[in-house]
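To the team - fe (ii) ion complex, inputs and output below.
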Amino acid sequence: MTADVFNFVDGSHAAPAPIQPWSPILVPCEAIEREIERLADAPRPEDGRRSTLIVHPLCTDGSLGFGPGVDVTINVLKPGEQTRALRRNSNQIEFCIRGSGTMYVGHNAQPFNRWDVASIPSMQPYYHKNTGNELWVRLTYSNAPLLRKLAVHWVDYVDPVQIRSAAAAGEDINENINRSTAPDIQISADGARLRGYEFLTDIQVVENKPLVWPWETVSQALSFEKGDEKRNIMLLYNPATGRRNGTTHSFFATLFSRQKGNPSGPIGRGHKHSSVAINYHFSGRGKSVVDNVVVPWKAGDLLLSGPSWSEHAHYYDHEGALVLTVQDHPLHIGMESLIWQERMDGPILNLGSEDGQKGYIGPRQAG
Ligand SMILES: [Fe+2]
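Output:
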């Protein structure tokens, strides 16, 4: 293609722009289990990664998403197996659904067991080793589809030791050229400023450590008995994400528990938000209603439970439930695009940019 080929497209009459949400997709436990067994029975891939992406049928642009900007991968390792170290500029949340092993990220080695959640920051070398006696199975969520759309998902094999020493190697650099010595001039009373280019290249660093939220600890904060005065949903917060309250810079993960013997009431209205919600149910049974489509689910089922700007609500039967929800909420806060409508007859709020929802004692439901 030559550099002077382009199109002019009519940009008038742009409002209103109706949103067409993706359809909810349920991936049943049985299908996930079959794929786990198939991955385990296959010959070991060269880099050790026995992996399958779960791709939404509406994802036809090659970005491999389960939602438009998020992928979900089933990862399997047999006992004793180890993956080759990688670096990628996408960030990841992992959830262990079976077995146990050790996750190596940067200089950290952390045990990772069933129902634990972990964050893998961007561009930190990582690999996994199954140190247990059974299959080790993880669900991994990442923003790679968004980066593929931006044509810049960077992935490469690395030697974790070499990466660290290369980063530490110094060159002839004038350390005095940095953001603290660059011009920084206010030019309007409202706050507009002019700044030197150093502010773009010498950016303040916020350390992002790989973190693990062990189920053994997290579960102690969740309510399992009526009246135990614990919460039914908790955010797995990574301090690197600051006021965007993420587990990674793109996603939050929450863990939700619904007590047994406390079934939901009749179906009512839901809420909607621009962030996409994916629920993995690891105990119990219930149903979700997404844009008037009723989707029954049970333990082991993965559900695109809240496609962006779909009206959705979740209901639980007498068995109760445990649910991991992943949402690209922090990404939207960073883009100032997190719009949220809690009641269908209420306002559409731009969360993070105007007053949010107050008096919200217990979130409606997971997701
Ligand atoms: Fe929701």
